[in-house]
């Protein structure tokens, strides 16, 4: 395993993929950005726990399909590890309808990206997820979440009974993929007020981040696939 340490300030990124060319290519691209440091990489999910302990990344680019421990199991391990500070995970896949994607989002991954995404999409995804501002926004992401939520085995949740009408308005717009600034404009609120509403929603519903909030909006029936 090759590892690169950096003392530069900014977003700390680790790359986990069994293909050396992917690790090297993504690493070179991200490392060239002034606000991103590639702090380490690994070739297998079994190595992720040690990688996180040693490098303390803010964001992990995690391949879904790897030998021994796959990216889904590695994501679960990372996000359920003891401690309050966990990195955010972007799942990498070569498929736009990978069954693992649904489980990865449920496990707490902040989104996913196709491996053939443009350089701009990759860099933007890392920055967006590191900020915690919004769900990863390539259109296929929302389609996959909508498809997952529309499956027959989905059961509506009763947990929204504790959510206020204004919080429901915010939740609908989060599920539509809007940023806090966009939500503020549509609801005539300050951006800080929107952030407060989002934080309260996450707390009330026991969710980790906006990605899980989007899934909860679909699962509860608050929004519908294609609606």
UniProtKB/TrEMBL annotation:
Entry-linked SMART domains: HTH_LUXR (SM00421), REC (SM00448)
Domain Response regulatory: 12-130
GO molecular function: DNA binding
GO terms of biological process kind: phosphorelay signal transduction system; regulation of DNA-templated transcription
Cited InterPro entries: CheY-like_superfamily, NreC/VraR/RcsB-like_REC, Sig_transdc_resp-reg_C-effctor, Sig_transdc_resp-reg_receiver, Tscrpt_reg_LuxR_C, WalR-like
Residue numbers of 4-aspartylphosphate PTMs: 63
Residue span(s) of domain HTH luxR-type: 156-221
Gene3D superfamilies: 3.40.50.2300
Keyword set, alphabetical order: DNA-binding, Phosphoprotein, Transcription, Transcription regulation
Pfam families (alphabetical): GerE, Response_reg
Identification of the protein by name: DNA-binding NarL/FixJ family response regulator
Organism: Leucobacter aridicollis
């Amino acid at each position: 395993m090759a590892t690169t340490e950096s003392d530069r300030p900014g977003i700390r990124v680790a790359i986990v993929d069994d293909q050396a060319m992917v690790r090297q290519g993504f690493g070179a691209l991200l490392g060239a950005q002034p606000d991103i440091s590639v702090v380490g990489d690994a070739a297998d999910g079994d190595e992720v726990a040690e990688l996180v302990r040693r490098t303390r990344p803010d964001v992990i680019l995690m391949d879904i399909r790897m030998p021994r421990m796959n990216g889904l199991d590695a994501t679960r391990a990372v996000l359920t590890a003891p401690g309050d500070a966990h990195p955010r995970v972007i799942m990498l896949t070569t498929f736009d309808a990978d069954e693992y994607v649904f489980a990865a989002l449920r496990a707490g991954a902040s989104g996913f990206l196709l491996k053939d995404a443009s350089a701009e999409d990759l860099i933007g995804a890392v920055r967006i997820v590191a900020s915690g501002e919004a769900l990863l926004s390539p259109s296929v992401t929302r389609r996959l979440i909508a498809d997952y939520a529309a499956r027959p085995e989905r059961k509506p949740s009763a947990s929204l009974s504790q959510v206020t009408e204004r919080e429901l308005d915010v939740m609908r717009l989060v599920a539509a993929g809007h940023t806090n600034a966009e939500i503020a404009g549509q609801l005539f609120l300050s951006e800080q007020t929107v952030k407060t509403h989002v934080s309260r929603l996450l707390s009330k519903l026991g969710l980790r981040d906006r990605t899980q909030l989007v899934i909860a909006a679909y699962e509860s029936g608050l929004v519908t696939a294609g609606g």
